[in-house]
């Protein structure tokens, strides 16, 4: 039954419900017609039986009463001569034109007895009067006629009571038929109303519940659950096509959404894969979007860039942020940017962002990291500068070295020929020391002018440093310097001779900064395939204003320094594919970090 109902359309269900209600009401109308027929039948019975009986009995009652009065008057007057005529006058005045065939069946016997009573007067009483037998006539009236008349009166009264009861029964039957019809009408009406409400509820429920479920699931699709499908659980015919259409729509939306998302992710991946930092500023919302390169290059400051109002308003990186705040188009402006301890250089450009119709919808701010290029230019400039200086130094060194050799030779001869008192008198030790210092400067100048290519061999750095420590002890004026070496024993590709020069210069600088007393710590760390060596002293430190220039030639803050030591150190380390940097420097000490690439495998 349920399957049959589910296969029916809403139109069929409604028409079926209307047909059932119509049939019920038609049956009710037939019952009402039958009730009307019953009422009509009772009316006919009253018309044909009850009413004539009432009229006839009332007539007979009056007639018998009149006849009784006539008899009593006659007997009291003792005159029976004209009784028959008076009797006939009563009959004539009270005559009711009715045939015996029209008399109800229940009164036909009484009607014959009434006729028989008249017959007694007209025949027997008239016979006594014809013979002037008044005594027999009076006796006949008293004994026979009055007795018969009283009997008929009793019968008439009895029939009146019976007839009244029958009429009352017929009236009750009217009421019963009407009450039954009204009760039936009420019951059928209530049943029809309840059935209508139930059918309407079932039909509407069969429509509204699935529609509510459809609406809820369509809302879920509208809120992003693309690809959500559902079935017509009540198998309603009209909803099958609607359900299929919504399922197809959901699947199509999912496909379209996935296509859009894939396309968006592909484009975002392209933008994020670019090494160029890009920021887009929406014209209406003022929101700022950054690609991964921009987030990486800006560092911590990128976390706070949500919209234009969040752009920093500080003196730090002011040129960079001023360009971003402005809406002016610019191209390839070089600005510096400090990100923590690191300073970088960006090549900044800004252009207008238009939609497909050419309407301005925002700006594109992009910047290239040219720090390496800038450093390379500085290195090239430094190399050119070193080359010029080297050529000058080489020429000067050769010109100075020849006469210096002659002076050195004569001073050695003089030093050997003079006594100890004369050596002190003529300051021979000081002359020999200063001559040795001049020779060391010349060697540094020649090394700066013509640096030899390193000859790489596998060696251990701790062995190299341990070889130069005794030499350092001999040349350091004070023996109060302690060199603490704690290096991890890792094989490296190095030129041992050049590396000795590097650490000789670094240890000598640290010792001089501590006034040749204290401890120098040398230790190592391994970080991501790099071998890092830290040289830590507890000297006076390097002035902050001189720190950016310590690796430039002839840059020194020491009274007797040449400004070539760290320049040579950096050049040797770079030739070893390494790097050196000043980690920290203050009044409490200085830390240099030397980095060498580790040997692969």
Automatic annotation (TrEMBL):
Q: Which residues form the HAMP domain?
A: 205-258
A single GO cellular-component term from the record reads: plasma membrane
Q: Where in the cell is it found?
A: Cell membrane
Organism domain of life: Bacteria
| Record CDD domains | HATPase, HisKA
Query: In terms of one coarse class, where is the protein primarily found?
Result: membrane
Any GO molecular function = ATP binding
InterPro entries recorded for this chain?
HAMP_dom, HATPase_C_sf, HATPase_dom, His_kinase_dom, HisK_dim/P_dom, HisK_dim/P_sf, PAS, PAS-like_dom_sf
Q: Give every Histidine kinase domain span.
A: 395-600
Pfam families tied to this protein: HATPase_c, HisKA
Q: Which reaction does it catalyse?
A: ATP + protein L-histidine = ADP + protein N-phospho-L-histidine
Under the heading Gene3D superfamilies, the entry gives: 1.10.287.130, 6.10.340.10, Histidine kinase-like ATPase, C-terminal domain, PAS domain
Broad enzyme group: transferase
- Membrane-protein topology: Multi-pass membrane protein
Where do transmembrane segments lie in this chain? 182-201
Question: What name does this protein carry?
Answer: histidine kinase
Q: Which species is this UniProt entry from? A: Halalkalibacter hemicellulosilyticusJCM 9152
């Amino acid at each position: 039954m349920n399957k049959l109902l589910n296969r029916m359309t809403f139109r069929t269900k409604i028409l079926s419900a209307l047909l059932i209600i119509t049939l019920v009401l038609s049956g009710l109308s037939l019952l009402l017609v039958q009730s009307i027929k019953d009422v009509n039948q009772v009316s006919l019975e009253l018309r044909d039986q009850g009413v004539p009986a009432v009229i006839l009995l009332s007539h007979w009652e009056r007639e018998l009463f009149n006849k009784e009065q006539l008899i009593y008057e006659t007997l009291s007057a003792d005159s029976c001569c004209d009784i028959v005529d008076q009797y006939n006058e009563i009959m004539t005045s009270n005559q009711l034109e009715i045939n015996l065939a029209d008399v109800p069946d229940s009164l036909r016997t009484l009607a014959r007895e009434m006729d028989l009573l008249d017959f007694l007067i007209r025949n027997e009483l008239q016979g006594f009067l014809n013979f002037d037998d008044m005594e027999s006539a009076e006796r006949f009236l008293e004994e026979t006629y009055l007795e018969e008349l009283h009997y008929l009166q009793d019968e008439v009264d009895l029939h009146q009571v019976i007839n009244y009861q029958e009429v009352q029964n017929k009236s009750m039957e009217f009421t019963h038929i009407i009450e039954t019809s009204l009760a039936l009408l009420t019951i059928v009406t209530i049943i029809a109303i309840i059935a209508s409400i139930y059918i309407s509820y079932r039909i509407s429920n069969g429509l509204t519940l699935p529609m509510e479920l459809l609406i809820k699931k369509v809302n879920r699709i509208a809120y992003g659950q693309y690809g959500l499908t559902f079935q017509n659980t009540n198998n309603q015919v009209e909803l099958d096509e609607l359900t299929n259409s919504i399922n197809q729509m959901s699947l199509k939306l999912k496909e379209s959404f996935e296509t859009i998302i894939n396309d968006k992710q592909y484009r975002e991946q392209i933008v994020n894969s670019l090494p160029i930092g890009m920021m887009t500023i929406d014209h209406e919302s003022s929101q700022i979007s950054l690609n991964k390169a921009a987030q990486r290059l800006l560092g911590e400051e990128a976390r706070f860039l949500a919209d234009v109002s969040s752009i920093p308003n500080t003196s730090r990186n002011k040129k960079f942020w001023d360009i971003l705040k402005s809406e002016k188009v610019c191209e390839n402006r070089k600005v510096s940017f400090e990100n923590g301890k690191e300073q970088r250089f960006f090549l900044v450009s800004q252009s207008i962002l238009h939609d497909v119709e050419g309407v301005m919808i925002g700006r594109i701010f992009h910047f290239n990291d040219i720090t390496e290029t800038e450093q390379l230019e500085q290195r090239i400039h430094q190399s050119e500068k070193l080359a010029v200086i080297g050529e000058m130094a080489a020429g000067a060194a050769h010109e100075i070295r020849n006469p210096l050799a002659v002076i050195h030779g004569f001073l050695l001869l003089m030093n050997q020929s003079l006594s100890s008192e004369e050596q002190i008198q003529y300051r021979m030790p000081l002359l020999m020391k200063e001559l040795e210092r001049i020779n060391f400067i010349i060697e540094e100048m020649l090394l700066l002018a013509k640096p030899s290519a390193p000859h790489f061999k596998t060696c251990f750095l701790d062995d190299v440093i341990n070889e130069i420590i005794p030499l350092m002890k001999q040349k350091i004026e004070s023996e109060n310097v302690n060199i603490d070496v704690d290096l991890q024993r890792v094989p490296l590709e190095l030129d041992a001779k050049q590396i000795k020069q590097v650490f000789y210069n670094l240890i000598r600088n640290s010792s001089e900064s501590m006034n040749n007393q204290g401890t120098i710590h040398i230790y190592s760390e391994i970080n991501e395939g790099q071998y890092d060596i830290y040289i830590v002293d507890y000297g006076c430190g390097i002035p902050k204003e001189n720190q950016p220039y310590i690796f430039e030639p002839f840059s020194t803050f020491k009274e007797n320094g040449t400004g070539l030591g760290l320049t040579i150190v950096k050049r040797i380390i770079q030739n070893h594919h390494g790097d050196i940097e000043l980690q920290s420097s203050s009044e409490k000490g200085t830390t240099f970090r030397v980095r060498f690439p580790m040997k692969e495998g």
